[in-house]
Write a structure and sequence with these properties.
Layout lengths: L1 E9 L2 H11 L3 E6 L2 E5 L9 E5 L3 E8 L4 H13 L3 E4 L10 E5 L5 E5 L28 E9 L2 H12 L2 E7 L9 E7 L7 E5 L5 E7 L3 H13 L4 E7 L5 E7 L5 E7 L10 E3 L4 H5 L8 H5 L3
Parallel strand pairs: 1-4, 5-8, 9-12, 10-17, 13-16
Antiparallel strand pairs: 1-5, 2-3, 3-4, 6-7, 7-8, 9-13, 10-11, 11-12, 14-15, 15-16
Helix pairs in contact: 2-3
């Protein structure tokens, strides 16, 4: 159904907690064994972000399926794709059901599960208000997506197609008319969200960024103000993407992991033609207004 959680490493847990709780406005739901668990105010499952002290970068991503039986189907498809799949037990991840785990061709660890303890949104489901009265910091409502790096983007797109039934919405390729051309980046989803996962050509196992959802331009602008107040290092923005049409700010947590706040975008449909970009237009695709990439965006990842 969706990306359920991002589990990342941080160098200093106290600094990271200040960033994700007080600047981003996530709600802490658990702290144990050197890990802290968070959710956004509009998320109902127990957590969507896990911080683990000891380095930088991504540990793993969790993806949630609708039915327990879906695990068997995905396990079979992953094995047919040539991946080694292992079962995980309920409780290996606190408040998460049993599931499966495998390593992608890009050397990222993905977990698939069917259930997580429901603790509810901060506004509830009975005559709910539009947002909580006492938001903290940016007050992000939910995890949105992630961008990872891989040596073979085409292989990763094929894996998400065949194993997760994802479909690409946008792609950078060397020839717009030839889908046998070299793939440089791909944005993919399984629902109407413009992308849940994106893959960019680069070093194996690396994280470029993970992103939080916002509603519109005004919230993106307010987020920039909060980041300035809190001395958060901003990479770029506020600006717009050509690819996905989203409004964005890229910035760094205290450990150097890149975050993003993302608003807008257009609805994705399986029968909509893929938007394709050539490499010479990728700067416009990423930063629509400036139409140029800064050095950090292409060289900094964790």
């Amino acid at each position: 159904m969706r990306m359920g959680y991002a589990h990342v490493r941080v160098t200093d847990l106290a600094e990271a907690k200040d960033h994700y709780a007080n600047t981003m406005g996530l709600y802490q739901t658990l702290e144990q064994d050197g890990r802290v668990y968070y959710k956004g105010w509009d998320e109902w499952d127990h957590h969507s972000v896990v911080l683990e002290e000891g380095g930088v970068g991504v540990v793993k991503f969790g993806f949630k399926v609708e039915y327990e039986a879906d695990l068997d189907a995905i396990e079979k498809k992953a094995q047919q794709f040539g991946l080694t799949v292992e079962r995980m037990s309920a409780g290996e991840n606190p408040e998460v059901s049993d599931g499966i785990r495998f390593t992608t061709p890009s050397e990222h660890v993905l977990e698939v599960y069917h259930g997580q303890t429901v603790i509810g949104t901060e506004v509830g489901t009975h005559n709910p208000d539009a947002f909580p009265r006492h938001l903290v910091g940016v007050g992000v409502p939910a995890l949105d997506h992630a961008l990872i790096l891989a040596e073979d983007v085409r292989l990763m797109e094929n894996m998400f197609r065949e194993v997760f039934d994802y479909f690409p919405t946008e792609r950078v390729q060397t020839d717009l008319e030839d889908d046998n051309a070299h793939f440089i980046a791909s944005w993919m989803t399984s629902n109407n969200q413009i992308h849940q996962i994106a893959v960019l050509e680069g070093e194996q196992s690396k994280l470029h960024h993970f992103a939080f959802k916002l509603q519109d331009w005004s919230e993106v602008g307010r987020a920039a103000d909060i980041m300035t107040m809190d001395d958060v290092p901003i990479d770029i923005g506020p600006t717009r993407h050509g690819i996905t049409r989203g409004q964005t700010i890229y910035f760094f947590d205290p450990s150097g992991n890149r975050n993003e706040v993302f608003a807008g975008g257009y609805p994705a449909y399986r029968d909509r033609p893929i938007n394709k970009w050539t490499p010479d237009q990728i700067a416009k695709g990423i930063f629509y207004h400036a139409r140029e990439l800064n050095e950090r965006f292409t060289s900094v990842y964790t």
